[in-house]
Amino acid sequence: MTKDLGSKMASSVRQAKTKQPQTEEASKSNGQKVPAPLKVELPLPLLPSRRIWPD
Amino acid sequence: MLAQIFSVANQKGGTGKTTLSMNLAAGLSRRGRTLIIDADPQGSASQWAGLSSDERPFPVSVISIASNLTREISRMSQDYQHLVIDCPPTLETGVAQAAMSVSNKILIPTLPSPVDLWASVRLADAIEQIKIYNTKLQPYILVNQLEPRNAMSKGMSQALAEFDIPALQSCLRRRAVYRNSALEGSSVYCMGKRGEAAAQEIEALIEEILTS
């Protein structure tokens, strides 16, 4: 068990040595889905009003 | 006199940099004139020494340096045999790099945990850059808070083999006396029977780094 844990720790160090901070491009090339940018929803009072006047 | 300069550095907090700096300096002061440079804005080393009593002052003076670190260090290295620099837990400000650029040896206290190992990988990259200018720099990883029966502690040697930086044979065990010595503004050398085993560890560490 200790040997397994030692191997896992060693492998995680190897990964840390090679892993670079991921950019959006890198995420795409890995086939990962990049989340869409959040849309800010305006609160109701700020929405442009559209009034429909009766004929 | 030209001091031998030891930086205690790790960009991760909580790895025992100040505890190591204080006890290392206490041990080195038994061999020659020693000064601790508190380069961490948190000021833990200064706070530690400030807790010592008048009857039993901390055996090493601590000075806090916030700017012109390299100039101040080169000035002080004339008057001391050993300088121990307690570095801040970040590489963002350039202070740790400045300290390492004028050091002879860097001690990197690392806890037996994956997250600490990964942080040491990033520090190792920074050290490689500094070694371009400070070619005589000798960095060492020191396993801190080792628990010999803990499986992760046992697995450390395999993980440390992946580093380009050598790991010291000496290691520091997880002991309450290290924390208690901080509370008393003292070092493990002055903790009587409780501090004996820890003092032996520090002595072994000092012998190893002075002869390596």
What does this structure look like?
- The mean pLDDT of chain A is 64.
- By secondary structure, chain A is mostly helical.
- Chain A contains two helices and no strands.
- Chain A is elongated and about 40 Å long.
- The longest helix of chain A has 17 residues, at 2-18.
- Chain B has 212 residues and is an alpha/beta fold.
- In chain B, α1 packs across α9 (196-211).
- In chain B, β2, α2 (44-50) and β3 (61-64) form a beta-alpha-beta unit.
- In chain B, strands 3-2-4-1-5-6 form a six-stranded parallel sheet, sandwiched between helices.
- The longest helix of chain B has 17 residues, at 114-130.
- The A-B interface holds A 1-3, 5-10, 12-14, 16-17 and B 114, 117-118, 121-122, 151-152, 154-159, 161-163.
Task: Explain briefly what this protein structure is.
The complex is a heterodimer of chains A (55) and B (212). Chain A is an all-alpha fold and 55 residues long.
From the spread of the alpha carbons, the general shape of chain A counts as elongated
Structural class of chain B: alpha/beta
Poorly predicted spans of chain A = none
How large is the share of residues in beta strands of chain A? Answer: under 5%
Order of helical and strand elements of chain A: HH
Class per helix and strand makeup of chain A: mainly alpha
**Total strand count of chain A, please?**
0
How much strand content do the residues of chain B show? 5-15%
Gross CATH architecture of chain B: 3-Layer(aba) Sandwich
- Indicate the radius of gyration of chain A in whole angstroms: 25 Å
Average residue-wise pLDDT of chain A: 64
CATH topology title of chain B: Rossmann fold
Distance between the termini of chain A: 82 Å
Count of individual domains of chain B: 1
How many separate helices of chain B? Answer: 9
